[in-house]
Amino acid sequence: MAKKGKKHQEALKLVDRSKAYEVSEAIALVKEAAKANFDETVEAAFRLGVDPKKADQQIRGAMVLPHGTGKTQRVLVFAKGEKAKEAEAAGADYVGDADYINKINQGWFDFDVVVATPDMMAEVGKLGRVLGPKGLMPNPKTGTVTFDVEKAINDVKAGKVEYRVDKSSNVHVPIGKVSFDNEKLIENFVAITETLVKVKPQAAKGTYMKNASVSSTMGPGIRVDVSSMAH
Q1: DSSP string spanning 98-148?
Q2: Cα separations in angstroms, 230 against 26, 118, 146, 163, 204
Q3: Strand 94-96 relative to strand 75-78, pairing
Q4: pTM value?
């Protein structure tokens, strides 16, 4: 443990906690401060001026990052008949109906994203208590309840991320890996920032994008100046 602590202390020395950096500077610092011996995930975090308790200030959706996340997502599709064949042809990792519902009820979770056709939701909905807390429940707002299963699978495999405001008005989104080129991380960060600005609820008052930061899995948070993007 001491070794990890020492690395973290060294990483902290690189960062001025009182400063909001330009995006390119912040990304360069994230990479410099990433001291772990594995390819850390880079995450963006946003503090938004919304009240998530109010229905008209909920923020939830999905987008495909320009350069993906660097993670291969395993997709489970609930579909029958022709739609099941379409899902298999599109490269879904698992396709089925009742058999997979039973497996999940018995504790199987070897997948990252669940897609379901609307006609399957009556059955899949029964898994809400199990899938909901893990953030795996298919949802029309994120494009995972759809008859266009081919597009849904392609989007996930291309690097689709979901964003959702939490109880503290924060949104956390992975934007890639430390091994990514700086430019790719910058473009992914700008893309999610612009998406969040676009989906600003009309009911939100005052400063919308209060602050933003980037960090690697084990590294310190680095504040990013998003004022120029947050009109």
Answers
A1: HHHHHHHHTT----SEEEE-GGGHHHHGGGHHHHGGGT----GGGT-B-S-
A2: 17, 36, 32, 17, 13
A3: parallel
A4: 0.82
Residues 6+ apart with CB under 8 A from 184: 66, 67, 176
Pair 124, 138: CB distance under 8 Å: yes
Alpha-carbon distance of 69 to 120, in angstroms, equals: 29
Q: What length is written for the chain?
A: 231
| Residue 229 pLDDT | 78
Query: By the 8 A CB rule, do 161 and 62 touch?
Result: yes
pLDDT, residue 5, reads 65
Contacts of 3 (CB under 8 A, 6+ apart): none
pLDDT in tens, 37-52: 999 999 999 999 999 9
- Span 56-72, pLDDT tens digits: 999 999 999 999 999 88
Beta-bridge partner residues of 160: 64
Q: Are 20 and 211 in contact (CB under 8 A)?
A: yes
How far is the C-alpha of 162 from the C-alpha of 109, rounded, in Å? 19
Amino acid identity of 81?
G
**Structure confidence by residue, pLDDT tens digits, 132-182:** 999 899 999 889 999 999 999 999 999 999 999 999 999 999 999 999 999
Q: Which residues, other chains included, contact 159 with Cβ-Cβ below 8 Å and sequence gap of 6+? A: 64, 65, 67, 68, 69
Angle between helices 23-33 and 182-198 (to 10 degrees): 130
Q: Read out DSSP for 63-81?
A: EE-TT--S-PPPEEEE--H
